[in-house]
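User: quick one, sequence for these C-alpha cells?
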C-alpha cells in the first residue's frame, strides 16, 4: 500500500482506520473553515484537503456589461431576483441584439446530476449542518430552511430553461447564468460570483473538497515521517507553487499560493474572507444523491409539489 494516498469525501468513513493521525501537523490551523469537518474524530485528524472547489453562479461578463449590471452589487438574494427580472425583460424585448443566441437568464441541466443532487439542496442543508457526518449522525428531522430552498428553486423555475449542457449553453451565449463549479469558468467571457441564499448567507461560495490526502497508518515510522513532510511542503514550499497551480491547475486548500485563473482567485478571496458555505451533500452515497436529485428535479419540472419534495428529503435523509 502507498505511504500517501488520495481519498474522495464519500470514501472517508470506510478508510478512516487506515489513516495516520495528522492533528500535530502545522498546516492544520491554516485549513479553511469547513474543510476539516469530515476528517476529524475527536482530537484526531486523519486527512488533509488536497484541493478545493467553489460552487457559485457562472455568468457572462459581456452580457452583464451590456445590461449595465455590476456583479459586485449582486450581494443579496433580493438583488439576484432583481437582476434576473431585468435580464428576462431585456431578453423578451430583444434588447440584446449582439447576443443572437440568448434565450434565458438561467440554465439548468436536463439530466439529473450534481446540480440537482448536491448544489441546489445544499442551499438549505448548509444552513443547518456543518458537514455530511453531522447530517448523517443527527438525521434530517426538519428542513429548517425550506422556504429559502423554495425561493431559490422558484427563481430558477421562473427564469430558467433546461439545457443538455448548461455550461456550454452559457459559453455559447444561450443563457446568462448557471450554477456550477469554478473549474468550468474560462475567465475571459465567463466569471464566477457567490450564491446569495434567501434569508441566509448573502455573498458566499459553496465550498467542496473533492479529494483529501491521507498517510498510511501501517507504513513504517520513517516512511510516515517522510509522508508528513511531503504533505507539509506541498502547499507551502514556493518551489512547488508552479507545479501545484499551473501544472495541476487546482486551487490549493491553503491561502499560500495564488491560483492561476480568475475564478480560482475568486475562490481564494472568498476562503480568506470567510465567505464560504460547507458542501453538506459532498459525502452522501450515490443512492442518496440519486434519490435527492430525482426529488429536486420533480419539483423543477412541476411533476411534484414543494411539500412532496420536502417530504422526500426528510425520508431520504431522516431515516
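Assistant:
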Amino acid at each position: 500500500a502507498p505511504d500517501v494516498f488520495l481519498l474522495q469525501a464519500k470514501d472517508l468513513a470506510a478508510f478512516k482506520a487506515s489513516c495516520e493521525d495528522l492533528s500535530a501537523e502545522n498546516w492544520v490551523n491554516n485549513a479553511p473553515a469547513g474543510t476539516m469537518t469530515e476528517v476529524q474524530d475527536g482530537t484526531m485528524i486523519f486527512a488533509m484537503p488536497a484541493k478545493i472547489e467553489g460552487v457559485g453562479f457562472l455568468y457572462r461578463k459581456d452580457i452583464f456589461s451590456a445590461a449595465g449590471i455590476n456583479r459586485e452589487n449582486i450581494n443579496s438574494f433580493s438583488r439576484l431576483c432583481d437582476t434576473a427580472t431585468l435580464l428576462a425583460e431585456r431578453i423578451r424585448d430583444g434588447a440584446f441584439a449582439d447576443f443572437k443566441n440568448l434565450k434565458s437568464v438561467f440554465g439548468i441541466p436536463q439530466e439529473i446530476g450534481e446540480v440537482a443532487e448536491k448544489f441546489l439542496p445544499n442551499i438549505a442543508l448548509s444552513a443547518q449542518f456543518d458537514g455530511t457526518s453531522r447530517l448523517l449522525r443527527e438525521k434530517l428531522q426538519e428542513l429548517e430552511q425550506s422556504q429559502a430552498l423554495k425561493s431559490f428553486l422558484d427563481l430558477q423555475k421562473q427564469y430558467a430553461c433546461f439545457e443538455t449542457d448548461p455550461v456550454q449553453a452559457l459559453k455559447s451565449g444561450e443563457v446568462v447564468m448557471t450554477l456550477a463549479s469554478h473549474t468550468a469558468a474560462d475567465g475571459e467571457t465567463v466569471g464566477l460570483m457567490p450564491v446569495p441564499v434567501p434569508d441566509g448567507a448573502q455573498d458566499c461560495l459553496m465550498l467542496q473538497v473533492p479529494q483529501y490526502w491521507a498517510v498510511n497508518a501501517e507504513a513504517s515510522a520513517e516512511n510516515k515521517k517522510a509522508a508528513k513532510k511531503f504533505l507539509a511542503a506541498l502547499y507551502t514550499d514556493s518551489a512547488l507553487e508552479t507545479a501545484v497551480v499551473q501544472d495541476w491547475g487546482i486551487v490549493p486548500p491553503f491561502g499560500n499560493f495564488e491560483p492561476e485563473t480568475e475564478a480560482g482567485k475568486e475562490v481564494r478571496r472568498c476562503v480568506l474572507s470567510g465567505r464560504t458555505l460547507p458542501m453538506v451533500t459532498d459525502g452522501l452515497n450515490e443512492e442518496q444523491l440519486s434519490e435527492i436529485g430525482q426529488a429536486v428535479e420533480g419539483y423543477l419540472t412541476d411533476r411534484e409539489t414543494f411539500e412532496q419534495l420536502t417530504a422526500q428529503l426528510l425520508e431520504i435523509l431522516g431515516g
